[in-house]
UniProtKB/TrEMBL annotation:
Domain JmjC intervals: 640-823
Molecular function in Gene Ontology: histone H4R3 demethylase activity; P-TEFb complex binding
Family matches, as PROSITE patterns: JMJC (PS51184)
Biased composition (Basic and acidic residues): 902-911
Protein name: JmjC domain-containing protein
Organism: Effrenium voratum
Source organism, top-level taxon: Eukaryota
């Protein structure tokens, strides 16, 4: 499915996709109804509604994680009689969710309804229905008959209604109502109405529309089934279920609840019905039909009442209450505590305090910051804190002198860095043995960490020094208490668990017992405390003795021997087997040259463009007792850090930033080809373990300046580590695991007291005995650090690189030992229950990221380091045909039995050759090639083109060209692959851009403007520019977005500037000119009136001073001459007249002089284009007056000049096919291309 995921999405709209796990109980139960729905959608009657597809999440885990992240969670299903909170049990069935997503119109939403064919089809019908306008009740009834179910009607043009229609599409039908219809349905004129049959509910308060609509009940009782029960249980309100006994249906419950439904507030009650067979046993209800009340907080039953007891109560009530009244009273009593809790939580949420560390705006906010610093014994001058505004920008607090920070930058957040002073000697190394016995749980965990550390040091000491040493105390302390024992002590123990079923079962039993013990530590507090104290003292004595013995064996030489060089090997000369045997298994680091993980990733701008908006947590080096001596530095967008890491933030470090988790866009669209996993790491066992916590953590990104470093550390989980350096240079310093005894590691395991880059052999003399490796890594090289190797690294230049942690045949046992020590029962079960095949492939090749994430390891030939094969799992095969193919069939499944070569592929050709040496005929099938001159249609979004081969291709051979060869608006790499004589285009790496040569259009201030992007803009991206760049006098920003290759300027935030008091305009009436000045501010597109006599006393009437986009103009057409002197006044050619047609205002100069009472005729078109008729302009007493009564807006006809339509970035000339009135629309299918599914409107 990864291979054709985007292609399938582009082919079908809408498309339902079931993301399923073959192990899922939900999948087994719902498979048949899903197949029924798929069959129905494939039928002729329902085919227009869409199609169904399926994705096996165990094989396509990364695609599933991106599309349906909830599927990454699997939990154990408690057995009958067990509590849901009971500790982990090995072998207990797990619950794997199944999720159905709807893809339509470029959006995705989860289907949360009942999984039955009729419900799915009803959902798709509603999702397909456009938001139409209903004029009257007759149209309303027709819509309700066609699409029964809930209906939301918008009575006002509110943006939130359209947004709600998009969010809830499919769950209910949406329509807009005319003013008459809304008035007919409600007298209060609410903005939104909700209809269920004849029942009408009104949105009466200013609340979130989506939340309000979801609170409404689509029917009196909704059906609840095991597959959709979670949608009810995740809400806070009690769930009331009518349990039908199988003889009746939900109808009986509907009648029972109908009369009290209005009184059961939707915020307090969820009403549903279910089959008693599905829920009765689970909640111990045997007397169905019955009413069951469940508390969603605990998923437990509050109470239940049988219908028999409800209708015939044992104790007769004094009043003659009806059955419904008794039901209402019982529900109110049963849910009283739950409703009180909900009210309390709602009140607490409303009055919640701001987040810790946040300071809102007040007059003394700076004083609050100083006070917070004083509580940490700090001042504004110190370096151990950081103050950020609401946008994440760092504030220079010590330089601020007043409360001059704008309110829109609040709240500010104060963050502190944690670090300790550098130790003067190695005393801190011995202090690490202190055990805090106040917290029993922490003390128990800390003791086990020290015990594990001593086991590792025992192995290290014996290998490094080869001296006899009494380690019996390690065994003795484990005998002090049954739960102080290690469940495994070495990799040999782990190997035995993997080989021996009896040993495996013993480990599982011991881990279950350990988990139960940890949950109830306090029950054995006295005995455990005594044992922990005694055991900790014994281990510390051994620790001191061990280091004393090592010091005594130390050579007389001060300081270390000359460091060894890290081997450097070309990938061309290094096989996978040699790599594992000679480096990984031996714990020897190596630098591999000649590997390429991605051509685009070498540029840091690639990550900035795709991940720039994503927040990133940064670290910095400090004198702290933390892993690698790294402490939090702050959080900001990746773009901000990329721009400043080599200038103002040179000591900040982006360290191990997960790309799959934070920015999966860097891998490109499915099938994810932008990153290549070298063959040495392609066999990662993490990728074979569905729902393994680390499966989708790597690769990760490192960015740092030449002032950043990581102190000595060991990678967590005993994983192997690789880093491919994309730019810059790094220096690495390594030690082998056997030298841990010499490196002063804290017994907690995370911190080394010895500083590998500033070594002090007087403080830490044993470090001089350790054998050190050093290596300088150049850009383009890959370094590999085997599991358990202590190492430090510093950047010699500004760098960025890609890393991976992984597990394979070289470190499986070491990694699994760590998981046993961490009591990670789920991972231990996953790696020991036989569901994962261990081993590698000799001819393993590099894999694209998508291939790596979708490998079917169950069918692979593992001929290298295959181990523990007796437990190898076999792949489950459970496919059923759906609409001519297998809905739940994986990409790698074989063709159906009985198909022939010609059945499978029509372009397969057979060559028949007769063999004289043997009877009969041999059929030799040869894949058909693609010839020069063959062409293929290439489609990307709305772009369509034909590409012709210039040279032939063999079967499976690929020709690579630029996407620009298909259309100039496309960028990237276009692949044409020959498949049995047919060219198959792959446009997954093509990206759409808006080009400067294809401008968009915007209307502002009644004028049409052409907007061309200043440079190429990626589809989905955009930019801002001032409205004044289009029309002087308008404020705000135009947001220009690239949508499918078409630039779409949004001028909705543009507003005309007002005219300030003091602005003036010169007004001339005959021989008098006056300057009129505004006495107060005048809004855009507004006017003030003034007496014409104020300019010239010979005139009467009113003149208007108009403000439009910060410019004042005068309209004197309302002035009339009242004196003999002006009655004969001419109108000079420079005089202007004012007209307004179809909302368009024009102030035009006539251009020719008119004598008094002389008039001229002008075409309406010449003044305001798009209008027919003529207007007269009369000169009356020196004032021009226009008569536009004969002007009318023009319609369109076949003679009308064509309009340019830009759809999906493609330009088409559209003409009207018939005569239309002004503002009437007509579609133009004849001239529109086949892919143009929109209607192009021609209007004036």
């Amino acid at each position: 499915m990864v291979k054709n995921f985007n292609e399938t999405l582009g082919r079908w709209d809408p498309l339902l996709v079931a993301f399923f796990d073959p192990r899922s109980q939900s999948f087994q139960e719902l498979r048949r109804p899903i197949e029924d729905a798929a069959h129905a959608l494939a039928s002729r009657n329902e085919g227009r509604l869409g199609r169904f597809a399926a994705v096996d999440v165990t094989q396509h885990s990364f695609l599933s994680r991106l599309e349906a992240p909830e599927l990454q969670t699997a939990w154990q299903q408690p057995e009958s009689g067990e509590s849901a909170t009971e500790s982990f049990r090995f072998g207990r069935p797990r619950f794997y969710p199944l999720i159905i997503l709807l893809y339509s119109q470029g959006q995705r939403k989860e289907y949360q309804g009942v999984v039955k064919a009729k419900d799915i089809l009803a959902f798709l019908r509603r999702a397909k229905e456009p938001v139409s306008l209903l004029q009257n009740r007759s149209e309303l009834r027709r819509l309700q008959r066609r699409l029964p179910g809930p209906l939301a009607i918008g009575c006002e043009n509110v943006t939130s209604f359209q947004a709600a229609a998009q969010t809830l599409r499919g769950e209910m039908t949406f329509a807009t109502g005319s003013k008459d219809l809304c008035s007919d349905l409600s007298e209060t004129n609410p903005p939104v109405l909700y209809l269920r049959g004849e029942r009408v509910k009104e949105l009466t308060s200013d609340q979130d529309l989506v939340h309000w609509l979801r609170l409404q009940r689509p029917q009196v009782l909704q059906e609840i089934t095991p597959d959709n029960s979670w949608t009810f249980l995740e809400r806070p309100s009690p769930l009331v279920i009518y349990l039908a006994d199988g003889k009746g249906t939900a109808a009986q419950g509907e009648v029972l609840f109908a009369s009290i439904e209005e009184r059961l507030e939707t915020k307090y009650y969820q009403l549903a019905w279910a089959d008693c067979k599905e829920f009765g046993d689970q909640f111990e209800v045997t007397d169905c039909p019955a009413i069951l009340v469940i508390d969603p907080d605990t998923d437990e039953k509050l109470a239940h009442l049988s219908l028999t007891d409800l209708e015939r109560p044992k104790r007769k009530a004094k009043s003659k209450a009806s059955t419904a009244e008794r039901l209402y009273a019982w529900l109110q009593k049963t849910t009283a505590e739950s409703r009180k809790r909900m009210d309390k939580e709602s009140l607490a949420k409303a009055s919640a305090a701001p987040a810790q560390g946040e300071i809102g705006w007040t007059e003394d906010w700076m004083r609050q910051v100083h006070k917070a610093l004083e509580q940490r014994n700090m001042s504004a001058e110190d370096e151990g804190y950081e103050l950020r505004d609401a946008k994440g920008q760092i504030l220079d607090f010590k330089a601020m002198s007043g409360n001059d920070l704008p309110k829109d930058r609040f709240p500010v957040r104060l963050q502190f860095h944690t670090e300790v002073a550098e130790e003067a000697d190695a005393s801190g190394f011995w202090e690490d043995w202190a055990l805090d016995l106040d917290d029993l749980s922490a003390a128990f965990a800390s003791f086990h960490a020290r015990l594990q550390h001593m086991v590792v040091l025992r192995e290290s000491f014996q290998e490094a020094y080869g001296m006899a040493m009494d380690f019996s105390s390690i065994e003795k302390v484990q005998q002090l208490h049954p739960e102080m024992r290690l469940l495994a002590s070495s990799t040999s123990d782990v190997a035995e668990v993997l080989r021996n079923a009896t040993r495996r079962q013993e480990l599982w039993t011991a881990m279950e017992r350990r988990l139960r013990f940890v949950q109830g530590l306090e029950r054995d507090r006295g005995r455990l405390l005594r044992s922990l104290k005694q055991g900790s003292k014994s281990l510390r004595r051994l620790f001191v003795s061990l280091h004393a013995a090592a010091s005594g064996a130390r050579t007389a030489q001060r300081g270390p021997a000359e460091p060894l060089e890290v081997p450097r090997v070309s990938a061309a000369d290094l096989s996978l087997q040699d790599f594992i045997e000679n480096y990984a298994k031996k714990g020897l680091p190596v630098i591999i040259t000649g590997l390429n993980v991605s051509s685009d990733w070498t540029q840091l701008s690639y990550f900035r463009e795709r991940c720039g908006h994503v927040p990133a947590r940064l670290v910095r080096k400090a004198q702290s007792r933390t892993w690698g001596r790294l402490v939090p530095a702050g959080k900001m967008s990746l773009a901000e850090f990329v721009d400043t890491f080599n200038t103002t933030r040179r000591n900040w470090y982006l360290h191990d930033w997960s790309l799959p988790n934070n920015c999966p866009d860097v891998f490109g669209p499915a099938p994810f080809r932008e990153f290549t996993v070298p063959k040495y790491f392609a066999g990662d066992y993490f990728q074979r373990a569905a729902f393994e916590g680390y499966q989708h953590t790597w690769p990760s990104l490192f960015i740092g300046s030449n002032e950043t470093e990581s102190a000595l550390h060991i990678d967590s989980g005993n994983t192997n580590f690789m880093l491919h350096l994309l730019s810059g240079r790094k220096e690495w310093r390594f030690y082998a695991r056997k030298d841990l005894i010499n490196l002063y590691q804290s017994p907690t395991g995370s911190h080394f007291h010895f500083d590998v880059f500033r070594p002090d052999y007087d403080k830490f003399p044993l470090a001089g005995n350790a054998e050190q490796y050093r290596g300088i890594q150049e850009a383009g090289e890959t370094i590999v650090i085997p599991a358990g190797n202590p190492h430090g690294v510093r950047n010699l230049e500004h760098i960025h690189g890609i890393s991976m942690n992984y597990v394979d045949a070289s470190n499986l046992e070491l990694c699994l030992l760590q998981k046993i020590w961490q009591d990670d029962a789920e991972s231990v079960e996953l790696y020991t229950d036989g569901s994962i095949r261990f081993g590698l492939t000799k001819d393993q090749q590099a894999l694209s990221f998508g291939q790596w994430k979708s490998q079917d390891w169950t069918s692979k030939t593992l001929d290298l380091f295959e181990a523990y094969g007796c437990h190898a799992a076999t792949k489950s095969t459970s496919q059923a045909p759906v609409w001519g193919s297998n809905l739940f069939r994986s990409d790698s499944d074989s063709d159906p039995a009985g198909s022939t070569a010609s059945d499978r592929e029509p372009s397969f050709r057979a060559e028949v050759r007769a063999r004289s040496s043997a009877p009969g005929v041999e059929i030799a099938c040869v894949p058909k090639a693609c010839n020069a001159g063959d062409s293929v249609s290439v489609t990307k979004g709305a772009f369509q083109s034909t590409i012709t081969l210039s040279a032939g291709l063999a079967h499976t051979q690929t020709f690579i060209t630029t996407c620009q060869s298909a259309d100039e608006a496309l960028r990237g790499e276009l692949r044409l692959t020959c498949h049995y004589g047919t060219l198959q285009p792959d446009t997954s790496n093509c990206e759409i851009y808006c080009l400067p040569s294809r401008p968009g259009q915007a209307v502002l201030g009644g004028q049409l403007f052409s907007v061309a992007p200043p440079q190429e803009v990626l589809d989905g991206a955009g930019y801002f520019f001032p409205c004044a760049d289009l029309y002087t006098g308008f404020a705000g920003q135009v947001q220009a977005s690239c949508n499918g290759g078409a630039l779409a300027p949004d001028v909705s935030s543009c507003s005309g500037l007002p005219c300030e008091a003091g602005n003036s305009s010169s007004v001339t009436l005959y021989d008098v000119t006056q300057t009129l000045t505004l006495s107060q501010d005048l809004g855009h597109d507004a006017f003030v009136s003034s007496d014409c006599a104020s300019v010239n006393s010979d005139y009467s009437g009113t003149l208007k001073l108009r403000c439009f986009a910060d410019a004042v103009s005068a309209d004197t057409s309302g002035c009339t001459c009242q004196a003999q002197a002006c009655s004969t006044a001419p109108c000079p050619a420079t005089d202007t007249f004012f007209v307004e047609l179809s909302g368009i205002q024009e102030n035009r100069a006539l251009g020719t002089q008119l004598a008094s009472l002389q008039e001229t005729t002008l075409s309406c078109e010449s003044v305001v284009p798009g209008h027919d008729g003529s207007m007269t302009v009369l000169c009356s007493g020196g004032v021009l007056q226009a008569n536009t009564a004969s002007c009318a807006p023009r319609g369109c006809s076949s003679k009308t000049p064509s309009a340019t339509a830009v759809v999906g970035g493609v330009v088409k000339e559209i003409t009207a096919s018939q005569e239309t009135w002004c503002t009437e629309t007509t579609s133009s299918p004849a001239t529109a291309p086949a892919w143009l599914r929109a209607t192009t409107a021609l209007s004036t």
